[in-house]
Amino acid sequence: MRKSNVLILNLFFSISCFYHPLWKPYFFPETDQFSKLQIQFASAIFLIQPRIYSLSKTSGVEGETIIIDGINFSPQASENAVNFSGSVQATIENATNTSLTIRIPYGAKSGPITIQNRQGSSQSFDTFTVYRYFISFSVGANTELYSLNMNTGAIVANSSSPYALTSNSASFSPNGKFAYSGGFGISYISSYAVNLENGILSSLNANAGATTMDPVFFAFHPTNRFLYVSSFSGASITAFSFDQNTGILTKINDYSQSCFCSLNHLAITPDGKFLYVNGNGGTEPIIGYSVDQNTGALSNLAGSPFGTGVPNMEALLVDSTSNYLYSVASAGVIIGRQIDSFTGNLTAIPGSPFTGTTGNFRAVMHPSGKYFYTVNILGATLAKHDISTNNGSISSANSILNFGSNLQFVTLDPTGTYGFVSNIASNNFYQFKVDPTTGAPSLMNSGNPYPASATPSVPQPFRLAQ
Questions:
Q1: Where are the domains of the chain?
Q2: What's the whole-number mean pLDDT along residues 259-280?
């Protein structure tokens, strides 16, 4: 009996050392779900250190509230300290033994979250990314910049805005650290560095890469490794590799098309396999390429170009599933095509072309892939269309808003919460909010536009990880 007790005690002490929070990291690094379960088990038994098990979300903005779940927290909020990277302490709004509701502090940086109380301290398993959101657009030889409060939707002009920089409707890299622009009458693109704290652009390289004539439209590959630029008059696409740390572009190649058309809007499928471009003129084609995932090189699809017979196509958009492609035309229609997931070839979605609004000119896809928004130049209309998840068909316009006088561009922030429309005739722009349940847009700022210092280009929302 005594021997069995000794064996049991030895086994207990061995397991205790093995699972104890002080020794646990050496046996189970916190890198996978199994390790997290081991940590939870150890924390529950030994009741020593506070432990964070999960976060209600892994990214957010300053001023937003999130919930931390874990164990060994103090139910007295003042007895806990929660710090973000950058040694910035959060406000704790509610506390229990297993949950803390905190508000992300101003100045917080991206990284793990730390919890500390009199029982000890520990960090979250997951990295929390803190974002700041901005809107930028060019106005003649200047650039205007606004900060966007994602909690309230309020936009505030930067104290330096407008500032002297000809950014020519710059397109931002997915990480927001760099921006690129081209223009008519040139055969090169320019690059800009973005200040991570305030979003201001500064010139990086006035001649960052050579293209053919009139590089106007840009598209980044979902891996953030490649940039593609269509040349309006050059009837070609230039591919670049993109260094996410320096913003430096390295040219891969020019890919010309022997079509009697000018190239404009680009779209890449979210799975990164295919790239498409609108061609205005000739058979009014949509031209398709396959994308080499390793090198970024393009190859013509076997069935390309895909004629549409619909003139003056503008926006080109792909849904979030990489199954459907859409374009709008000033004739008041929306073209829908199904994408073959193996070949990239396009076939008409039943019912296409779909009825749009008179003169619908530009469009934007909601990140969810459920809604499609168009703006109408002549009728000054913002219209929402629903996208069928069954077959990709487009509904007739609903939730129509009438405002402004010459609506040229429509964009959404990366989360799809707020949208922006430029009003060319009156040198201003509008803001709308998207209903999270129905997708219906509603004008903000009491329906009034925000003034621009001159004719605004495309309002470009972007975000920067802090």
A1: 9-48, 131-465
A2: 89
